[in-house]
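Heme-degrading monooxygenase HmoA
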Amino acid sequence: MKFIFEVTVKPGHTAEEYADAWVRASELIQQAPGALGTELHRKIGAPNQLIAIAHWRSKAERDAMEAIPNAAVAKIIRSAADFVTVKLIGEFEEPEWVVKPKQQQQQQQQQQQQ
């Protein structure tokens, strides 16, 4: 499952400032059972707009992580709260429909046959 949120960095601050806090919090969150990694993307043409995508094995495991307060993560998040706005986009299932270039599909099929 994917947990996706949008971050807007307020004027006078930089995406790098937020990314520093995001990395520190994410390193702690990624220790939770079911955490499969996370990534932060900068919007093309809008350097202070970011999208974060957290990958989880299941919604239940992500919910379990949220149910146990982590003071260190909360402190990091509060440190960035003054200079960003965060908007939850949503929680999404793994893709049901995927289209890839034909060459990539053939390579994956060959790997599966080995």
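thats it. Strands lie at 2-9, 35-43, 46-56, 84-92. The longest strand covers residues 46-56. bye
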